[in-house]
Amino acid sequence: MRYLIIGAGAVGGAIGGRLAQAGHDVVLVARGKQYEALRDHGLRLVTPDGPHIHRLPVVAGPEELGELSPDDVLVLAVKTQDSVAALEAWAGRPVAGGGTAAERLPLVCAQNGVESERLALRLFRRVYGVCVWLPATFVEPGVVSAAGTPLTGILHIGRFPEGTDETAHRISADLEKSFFEAPVVPDVMRWKYAKLLGNLANAIEAVSGVITSEEGLALHGRARAEGEAVLGAAGIAFASKEEEKETRAEKIRFEPFDGSERSGGSSWQSLSRGTGTIESDYLNGEMGLLGRLHGVPTPVNDALQSVADRFAREHRPAGSMTIADLVAEADAATR
């Protein structure tokens, strides 16, 4: 199978680089400065086992590939706010032997949140969800750091909305040869909703820095409690903290092998790069949406979403709001 990594940033670059390192056929899809750097210098993937330079085919869009192969796998690794544009760009591409990508090819959503699978299923007939546990950082154009060890990441995979099939097992087998553990599960969204509860902290980290204080941990606890109440009201199952802990065990440890301090996660990286967008609408905003649908108030998540969106829109520096000020905004929203 050939893997087309749509969105070769932190997560996409780590997955694509590791697949390529294991000998799999990979094409990177990127835009702007990232596209130029990958095209001119290759992908530099920095990991605990050393830096790896991967000179892989790079395209800015599907037109450059022409007709796709029936053995292609589309891996969607853009932020959710960019999913619609990416899905529309790839859905109608012709596949050798007839039909389009949307009709014939597997589309794998390797993203935070739970919205992209729903968006994809409007167009693509074969959609797979991936619960991404993968500590990766976009360092600069062309350079991605993946600091997980001994595994680079754990990637639960399954059909959306549920089930498994031969394709999921084939993708899993390729990933497991590439420094990942990739359990094939019939209930992948149960794992993705559990990850979503953890990702409710992303907005806190993005605007106030890595969460180390009791205030920050307590604020995430409040956001998570709202999320659990919302999922309960909606009848949506999610893996427990105990299941997550048992699954990860000591398989992924973050070790700053270059001596640097840990940077923030995906939302923090969006602010630090000044992209002008942030995924909070699909993390904290998912809880707000479900809360309004099921009559459960979500003031803390609403406040975190609003602050994160404001930071992105105004290009404010990542981590520049004190945790005390952020807590005050959340408190004001609950009154």
List the topology elements.
Elements: E1 2-6, H1 10-21, E2 25-29, H2 32-41, E3 43-47, E4 50-54, E5 58-59, E6 72-76, H3 83-91, H4 101-104, E7 107-110, H5 115-121, E8 127-133, E9 136-140, E10 143-146, E11 148-150, E12 153-159, H6 166-176, E13 180-181, H7 188-199, H8 202-208, H9 214-234, H10 241-248, E14 252-254, H11 266-273, H12 284-294, H13 299-313, H14 323-334
Parallel strand pairs: 1-2, 1-6, 2-5, 3-10, 6-7, 7-8, 12-13
Antiparallel strand pairs: 3-4, 8-12, 9-10, 11-14
Describe the structure.
- The protein is of the alpha/beta class and 335 residues long.
- The chain is 44% helix and 19% strand.
- It is built from 14 helices and 14 strands.
- It has an 8-stranded mixed beta sheet, sandwiched between helices. Strands 4-3-10-9 form a 4-stranded mixed beta sheet.
- Helix 1 (10-21) links the parallel strand 1 and strand 2 (25-29).
- Helix 8 crosses helix 13.
- The termini are far apart.
- The model has no long low-confidence stretch (mean pLDDT 95).
